[in-house]
Design brief:
mainly alpha
Length: 204
């Protein structure tokens, strides 16, 4: 997706505002001020604040997909290393990048899923893509000699995403990155319990 520089600047400004204040509490005037534009210029790029909100999800997913789903979970490294790098990336991201605001996708899921079907569908796709990538990594961990219970692995992948998003929410509530760190350790323990072949940090 190729964006004009000004459209991209508006989206990036809106991401910071929506992640911090929420979608409903972010006013058009906030976006105009942060982007240093007038209403006419805003409506040249977006027909409404809602269109901008949906663009925020798409743009944020592009970054999330590249940094985590592709560069880490789809890398040629061993599945154990990929899984550990995912957990480490999540902690580092929330430690260094406005951690007190939580997860943009999780925040919007809580705020908007009941009220706007388009928002709900887009956020659902983000979590489904993440879950699918984790499932593929978990399946890689299973040795050829071991039976693969695909339903168990799929449920495990869903549970991992749910636990991590819950950890991010609790981290945001307590304003303490250690909450998320503890949750990643619990996730490691869970995977080790379900998949005996997994050992954190193990090379092939």
């Amino acid at each position: 997706m190729i964006l004009s520089q000004k459209r991209q600047e508006i989206i990036e400004s809106a991401i910071l505002l929506i992640r911090s204040k929420g979608y409903e509490n972010t006013k058009l005037s906030d976006i105009l001020e942060a982007s240093q534009i007038g209403k006419g210029q805003f409506y040249y790029y977006f027909s409404s604040k809602r269109e901008l909100g949906l663009a925020v999800i798409d743009y944020s997913f592009m970054a999330f997909n590249k940094q985590l789903l592709e560069n880490i979970l789809s890398s040629p490294k061993s599945p154990e290393i990929k899984f550990d790098e995912m957990l480490d990336w999540l902690v580092m991201f929330h430690k260094t990048s406005r951690s007190k605001c939580g997860c943009l996708f999780g925040n919007l899921a809580v705020e908007m899923s009941e009220h706007d079907e388009s928002f709900r569908e887009k956020v659902k796709e983000v979590f489904e893509n993440w879950t699918e990538k984790i499932k593929l990594v978990l399946l890689e961990m299973i040795k050829p000699s071991e039976p693969a219970d695909f339903l168990k692995v799929e449920k495990l992948a869903q549970g991992i995403v749910a636990m991590l998003e819950g950890g991010i929410l609790m981290m945001k509530s307590k304003q303490d990155i250690n909450v998320l760190k503890d949750m990643t350790e619990l996730v490691r323990y869970l995977v080790d319990s379900y998949l005996p072949s997994y050992s954190p940090g193990k090379e092939e």
